[in-house]
Every structure is written in C-alpha cells, then in structure tokens.
Design goal:
Layout lengths: L1 E5 L9 H13 L4 E6 L15 H17 L2 E4 L10 H6 L2 E3 L3 E6 L2 E6 L9 H10 L2 H9 L2 H19 L4 H4 L3 H10 L4 E4 L6 E7 L2 E7 L6 E7 L4 E7 L6
Parallel strand pairs: 1-2, 2-3, 3-4, 6-7, 7-9
Antiparallel strand pairs: 1-10, 5-6, 8-9, 10-11
C-alpha cells in the first residue's frame, strides 16, 4: 500500500492536457492507495464555492469517485491560488480540509506537510500580500460581492501575479532554509513534504545531526510529479505528462 502527495496542478480551461493527465492519474494510481494528499493549487484560481464551471464540477465528481472506489480519505491543504475553497466544495469533492501546517502519521513517522508558500520568505512582496488576502474579515467581504465582480478581481490578481513571477529568480521563489529548519523543529518532524515552488526535488540534510528529508512535489506543466510513500520508503516520482495523456 502507498500514500500519494500531489500539488500545483493549476487546473484551468486553458490547459486541458493537465486536466486529462489528472483524470488519468486518478484512474492509473488506484487500487493500492491508503490516502491522497493534495497540497494546494489544484486550481489556477478560485473565486468561491458558489461558482460552478464544468471543470470544477467534473473534478469534484472524479475526486469523490476516487475516494469511494478506493475507500480512502482525500486530504487538502489550501494553496495560494485556491485558498478560498470552502466546506461546500470540499464536501462535493470528498476533501478533508487540513491546516496550512499539518502533522501526519505516515506509516509510523511524524511528517510535516504544507503548501509551501509560507517557506518562501525571500518573496517579500508575496508575503505582505498573503497577510492581507488571508484576513478573515476581508475574505468575508469578498464573498459578499457579486460573483461577476469577484471573477474580475480574481483574474486580475492572477494576471498580476503571473507577470511578476517572470521576473522572480529561483532564489526568491525557493524556500528559506532557516524557516524550513524552524518549522520542522517546531513540529518535531524529520520529513517535510510541500509544493508551491514548482521545483520538484528531494533534499537530504540534517537536523541536530539526524538525517532529514524535504520533498518539493513540483508542478504538472511539463511533467507529472508526485511523492509516493510506502511503509519503508518515500520517493519523488517524475514522469512525462504523456505517460498519463496517451
């Protein structure tokens, strides 16, 4: 049996190949799965649970079926693109929402999981914006706005973020090592699994002279990458997207 971790698919109507790969992934990676963890940014943008598109509804249908067929739980940590996913959609998609920093028992080991945006302290502009957009009062006000206005605001923020991302180097987009160590020490974990940076990799280091691992799950734009945990090992798996689309 195994547990799977994915992140940063950024599903949208503009990238149907990724959607096809995701649905194929759910079909192929089935039958021997204990749990599926989605570590944020499943969608490119999320306006609110009251918006219904064919893509959103089909994803909910596929995830719900996956949970039922495999008789497993699907866990979700919000990303920076879809942090507004609420209980309504979570119920439709059979998602169990987790805290932004969550400890899980992974085959007897305490493992820390998160989206990963809180690790990127060098991206100061984003961290300032994150404090604002995660303000519960502002989120409540946003949800009271008409759907049409929320769509315009959401896509405007998304476009601005995309244009700024072009000028960010890997150092800014990458994690701050001191923050990684701080959080892993706080949660007494020697394994961390996260997304957000789109830099799929397995990092080996030490915490208090003990071996530690950090897995960056990676995105699905060119390859399909995910972390697969079994009772005796945890590995990062990277496959060409054609593996799930042909």
């Amino acid at each position: 049996m195994r547990t799977l971790f994915i992140a940063d698919l950024h599903l949208s109507e503009a990238h149907p190949k990724i959607t096809t790969a995701f649905f194929s992934f759910l079909e192929k990676e089935s039958g021997d799965v204990d749990a599926l963890y989605i570590l944020g940014d499943l969608f490119e943008v999320w306006i609110g649970d009251d918006e219904h598109t064919q893509l959103m509804d089909e994803v909910a249908k596929r995830l719900s079926a996956y949970a039922k067929i495999n008789q497993i739980n699907i866990y979700y940590i919000h990303g920076n693109r879809d942090f507004m996913i609420g209980k309504k959609y979570a119920k439709e998609a059979a998602l169990q929402l987790l805290n932004e920093h969550s400890e899980i028992d992974l085959y007897g080991e305490n493992v820390l999981i998160m989206h990963g945006d809180t690790l990127c302290l060098a991206d100061k502009n984003y961290q300032k914006m994150r404090v604002i957009i995660h303000n519960p009062l502002l989120q409540s006000i946003f949800n009271l706005m008409p759907l049409s206005i929320r769509k315009k605001i959401g896509w405007k923020i998304r476009s601005a973020s995309q244009s700024k991302k072009v000028y960010k180097n890997k150092e800014v987009m990458g994690v701050t090592e001191s923050e990684v160590l701080r959080l892993m020490d706080k949660h007494r974990a020697h394994t961390l699994i996260h997304g957000h940076t789109h830099q799929a990799a397995k990092h080996l280091f030490k915490i208090l002279n003990k071996p530690a691992l950090r897995f960056d799950v990676g995105d699905w734009f060119n390859n399909v990458s995910f972390v697969e945990a079994q009772t005796d090992q945890i590995e990062l798996i990277i496959r060409p997207i054609s593996y799930y689309t042909n």
